[in-house]
Amino acid sequence: MASEQKEKLIRFYKGTEGEEIVIKLVDLAENILRTQKFRISGFLDPFGQEIAETVAANYGNIRVDFAGGYQGAERARAIFIHEDFAGTPTSFGIDCIEAKWNGQFARLSHRDVLGALMGQGIERDTIGDLLVTNDSVKIICEEKMADFLLANLDKIGAVGVECQRADLSSIAPKEERCKEIRATVASLRVDSIAAAGFGSSRSKAASDIAADKLKINWQPAKSASQNVKEGDILSMRGRGRLEVAEVRGTTKKGRTVVVLKRYL
Questions:
Q1: Does pLDDT of 2 surpass 60?
Q2: Inter-CA distances, 196 with 170, 235, 247, 252, Å
Q3: Does residue 182 sit in the same domain as residue 232?
Q4: Which residue in 238, 232, 226 sits closest to 200, CA to CA?
C-alpha cells in the first residue's frame, strides 16, 4: 500500500518543481511507517509545505506540523509524526545566526545573502528565512548548519561580516500589511492580474514573467497568457505577494471584476 502511495504522489508531481521535494518527503513518510516515530524535513517554501500536507493526507497514520523558527515564517520545516508515537518531539532543530556589517558603507540585499550562502556550497533546504536589515541579517538555519556558518561566513559579496548566534525568541512575529485592490481587467491572464495588483503595465508584467520573476502558487508562471483563478497566490520577486481574493463576474463592457489582496 505504501509503495503504491509513493508511486502515485511522485507521478502527480513528475516534471514540476515539486518532483524532487515529494521524493524526499515520501521517503520520510515511509520511514515513519516502518519505525512508528517521527522525522523532520529540511526547510520548505509554501509550495513545499503544501506538498508535505498532501503527503501526510495520503498516508493515513501520519500527521504533519510546521515550524520556521518564529511566528509567521515563510520557509518552515515539516515534522511528520506517526499516530502511534508515544513521545513528544521537543525541537525542530532550528537555530539562528546573525551576520553584521557596517551599514554606513554597504547595503546588502536578500539576494546578496542567499548568493553568499549558496556560494559556500550550502543546500537551500538547510536555510530558512533570511531577515535582512540595513546592517545585519538573521539567518534561520538547521542546528547542524549554525556552526558551519560561524566558522565560514566572513564575507557577503565583497563586504566583511561578523557572525554570532542569535536567540530565536528575539525575532518579532512577522507582520504583513495588506492592501485591498478592486479592479476591472481585460481577462484573468496572469499578466493582466499582475499589472493590476502590482501597479504596472501589462507589458512590464509580461517582461517580469519572461524573466522568471513571478510565481503562481509558488511555481514559475508558464507564460504571460496563463490564466489564474480565485484563491491563487502570485508572488513577485521584490514586490511581495498578491492573492486573487474574489472574481466577481463581468461588466457590461465585458471586463472582469476582481478583488485582489496585496501583502507587503
A1: no
A2: 37, 14, 13, 19
A3: yes
A4: 238
